[in-house]
Each structure stands twice: as C-alpha cells, then as structure tokens.
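User: Structure please.
Assistant: Input sequence and predicted structure:
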Amino acid sequence: MKRFISLILILILASTLLVGCGGKGVTPTKPEKQTSTQAPTVSEIDLQYETAQKYIKEKKYADAVFAFTKVLELDDSRVEVYIQRGDAYYELAQTENKEENLLSAVADYETAVSKDTKAEDTKLYECYVSLGENAVDTDQKYDALTYYKKAYEFDKSDPYVALMQKLWMYKEDDGKGRISYFTFDFDNTGYAFYNNVVGEQQTLEYTLNDNSLHMMRYLNIEYDWKYDVSKAIFTQDFGSLELVSAKEAFEDWYNNISESTSQYGELTTQADMTAAAGSSYDMWDVVINVVYDYVISVLPEDKASSLSSEQKDWISEKESAMESVASEYVGGSMYGMIKAQTGADYTKERVKELIDMIPEP
C-alpha cells in the first residue's frame, strides 16, 4: 500500500515538472519589442515639405506653392518655408498672373524678414523691379514709381532703376489755372516747378537738398512762398494728381510760358515793351536752368559731360548774338528791348532743344 502511494506521488510530481517546462495549454511569455531598431514615423510636416521640394525640382511651381502652404498651416514659424514659397511664387509669375504672383512673393519675403531680420536670399529686389516693369507696361504709372522706389532701397547701383524714377512727374491742376509739376528721386532730392498761367506771373521752384524746403526762384512775385516737395508727395491725396512723363511735363510747361510771353506783343509804349522783353528774357533764363539741371541728371555720364561743354559754347554764342543784333541800336530807345528779346529768343529755342534730349520712359 505504501509503495502504491509513493508511485502516485512520483507521477504527480513528474506531471508538474512537465507543465512548468512549457507543456501543452500554456502560452509562453512574448519577448519585449526592440524599439531602437524601428524606422521613425514620418510627420505630416516633413512629408509636405519633401513633396514641395520634389515639385520645385520638377518646376511644378503651383503644386509647390500648395505643398509649402500645407507646411505653414501646420507650422507657421518656419522662416525658410516662407522664402521658398516666395521663390515658387516668383517663378510662377514668369509665366502667369504676373502681378498677383509677384505680390504674393513679396508678402512671403516680407513675412520672413519680419520673423527674422537676418533672413537672406530673398528676391525682394527682383520682385519690385519686375512689378515696376509690369506697371509701366500696363500704364499704372504711379505704381511703377512706387515699385522702383522700393527696388532702389535694396540696390542703389542699378542705373536703370535710378533712371526710371526720374522720368515721371506729378501734375496737379487746382482748377484755377494753376498747374504744379513735381518729381523726386530715391535719395529725396527732387525737381519741382509751379506754373501760374492765369496772368503774366510765373512761379517756379527747383533744387535740392534732402527733405529741405526747396529754394524758390520768383519772377514778378513779391511774397515768399515755399513748398516742401518731399513732404507734399507723402501727404497729398494722390487721387488728385496725375502722373505724366517728365518730357511731357516740360513740354507742357514750355508751351504755357510761350503763350504767356506772347502777350507782350500787345503792348504799345516803348517803356512797357522794353520791360516786357526784359521779363521774358529773365523768365527763359530761369527755365533753362531748371531744364538743363534735369537733363544733366538723367543722361548717361558721357552724354552729360558732352552736354556740359556744349552748353558753355551755347552761352558764349548767345551773348555774342545779343550784342551783335543790338549793336545797330546802341544809343537808341530800342537797344535794351532788342538785346533782351534776342536773348529770350535764343534761350527759348535752346530750352526746346534740351527738352528733346530727355529720354522717353
């Protein structure tokens, strides 16, 4: 009996040992995952960014803009993405919706700079030049001047941009016969003249220091009238102004002065005619200084140098002609009138020649 009980116990122990060694019906413990060897999950931002880069390489700029926009919707702090989307807009502008895409590029570049003042590699200068060209082509003259001014702020070495901003003038008519013309360059120096054609009085203004009250030249006007051209440009309502080419403005001015001086022929006394001839000569002398200064400022350096020498020769020729024509009237009452009128006629003709030298926009 004892031997039988001992056998039972041995069998039970053997069965227990077998179960403990992984017998049937027991689930073994699973090994822990080795996470260090798993590939990282690609984020949505990275996926969109990689997609945008792919589109850029394929020159699919519209698709690149869309992908870059998705990146910025998820993370708007990435300065480099604003710049790259701006680049995509810039390239897109070369083939479609030029103004709209260029403005979008400018907005992205300016956002990048606002987020990081050290942001580089933007095409802001190129965008503003292109916008200026587009505005000229579409006859948006004020916009053209504005865009060229912004371009000049980035690069003052481009002679084309520097020239373009000088070839336009603002024209303002106050409805009372008084017409103003003025312009400015990107260094805040400028030319301006005011033409009152109501009566015989003429006023003009020119020259030229940074943000200063500009020097005035007056004829037949007693009171002191000053006008800050730089300030006026930024404070007046542009809706009341018309932008015309500088050449058109000077031609208009020339015609107005020619018309007003022609009234002197209606005078009857010698004293009045002599005074009128003197005033006419003085007026054209002031006008030629304004026109000459302007023409010199917009001509290429070699042509400006040549014109300077030519102008000195012309002055000598004019003075000789004045003396020669008036010489037969020496001692007579008409001497002063003839001399002054000859000077006025010579100067008027030279003014027209100088105006014709102004390049077309």
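The beta strands are 168-173, 178-182, 192-196, 202-205, 216-219, 242-245.
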